[in-house]
Amino acid sequence: MTSRAPRSSPALPPELAGPLRRALDSSRDVTVFVDGTAHRLPAEAQAAVVDLLARLSDGDAVQVTSVAELLTTSQAAELAGISHSYLRKLTDAGTLPVEYRGSHRRLRRADVEEWLRGQLERRDPAGAPHGADAAGSG
Asked: Which of 24, 31, 69, 117 has its Cβ near the most Cβ atoms within 10 Å?
C-alpha cells in the first residue's frame, strides 16, 4: 500500500492565471502529455483536472491528496468471502488494518485485497490450478 503525503501548490500569479482561465472557459477537452505522449483523460479524471486548473486560475492555492476506498465490515467480509465475525477477529488481532469512524470499523479495499492474495498464495504457493480437475477427480 502506497501512501503519499498531500501536495500543496501556491496560487498562480495573475499573468499565468488569466490565460489559463480563458483557455478553460473556451474548452473542456483535457489532454495530458507525459514525455511527449498524449493521453486523453477519462471523464472522471478530466473533471478533477479541470477543477484543479480552475481553482489555480481563480488565484487559489490548491492541495491534492488521495482518498482510499473504505469499506464497511459487511462489504469487506463479502469481498473476502468470509463471515463478519471472522473479519472482526482479524481486525482485533491486527491481521487486517482497520480505521474507526466513531465506533464503526472501516477497512481499505486495498488491504482486504492484499490479505486475500496472501491467503490464496499460502493455499497454493506453486500456482497449481484450482478446482476438481486439479485434484485428479473428473
From this structure: 24
pTM: 0.49
Q: Contact at 8 Å (CB) between 17 and 36?
A: no
Residue pLDDT, tens place only, 1-55: 345 677 888 888 989 988 888 888 887 677 889 999 998 888 888 888 888 988 9
- What pLDDT, on a 0 to 100 scale, did the predictor assign at position 21? 86
